[in-house]
Amino acid sequence: MTDPSVTEELDLSGDGGVKKKILKEGVGDELPSKGCRVSLHYTGTLLDGTQFDSSVERGVPFEFELGRESVIKAFDMGVATMRKGEKCILTCAPEYAYGSAGSGPNIPPNATLQFELEMLSWELEDLSPGHNKGILRAVVKASEKKRTPNEFAHVHVHLVGKHEERVFEDREVKFDLGMGTDFGVVSGVEIALEKFRQYETSRLILKPEFAFGSQGNQEFGIPPNATVEYTPKMVYASAAK
Fold it and tell me: Where does the UniProt annotation place the signal sequence (predicted)?
């Protein structure tokens, strides 16, 4: 039986301006998030089939940082919904592409474009304060909400912690941001939660300095200087009191 999701056209923009049709399903549950450096192949055509650009023909994948407005709006929107190995076609109205100006000699003004995309890979988003890859995030379930918690916001989170695929922690916790250590929440999780949207679920990879450090955690069976993984789900976040 054919998977209907492979042929269904999805309206990503909500106004018909960016439509996505999956040609080949990707693998896994993770999605790239803002700040991830993605690597993909694309072929761009006009609606009449005229090709204007192709990384496939150049033989070099295209790389960019997602969500930094370095590409057309449709690219940022579409790529954020792709899993590794996925292939899709994006149909992009002018206002999500090059608008009334067009681009160079090959893309006329007010042109609707189509891109065939293949997601190759991405580097996880670095949330660590020093950008030393101490806190890496991969979005598992994205949220349509835009707001992230403000300082001292009260949050309700479901936490799952793993070390070498062994679950050592699985619980619900409620606390005010900035007070996480009083509730046994490691610093890397608390720092990352400041970037979470309500209802978001993401996987975090934490280096020791943002987890249990050189002491480890005997109760959880975590050795010294261990890198651990957490998957928090932001159940609820309210404004600071």
Answer: none
Active site residue 135: no
pTM, full prediction: 0.71
Secondary-structure breakdown of the chain: helix, strand, coil percentages, each rounded to the nearest 5: 15, 40, 45
What is the token pair recorded at 50? 């005229």
pLDDT in tens, 31-41: 998 888 999 99
**CATH code at 37?**
3.10.50.40
Q: Which of 62, 75, 96, 115 is catalytic?
A: 115
User: Are residue 131 and residue 106 in the same domain, yes or no?
Assistant: no
Active site residue 220: no
Span 78-104, pLDDT tens digits: 999 999 999 999 999 999 999 999 999
Domain boundary among 108, 123, 138: 123
- Which of 53, 191, 210, 212 is catalytic? The answer is 53
Nearest-5° Cα angle at 160, 25 to 65: 50
Q: What is the pLDDT of residue 66?
A: 92
Q: Last residue of some domain: 123, 147, 163?
A: 123
145 and 223 both lie in a single domain: yes
Q: Which domain holds residue 187?
A: 125-238
Q: How far apart are CA 105 and CA 72, in angstroms?
A: 17
* 168 belongs to the catalytic site: no
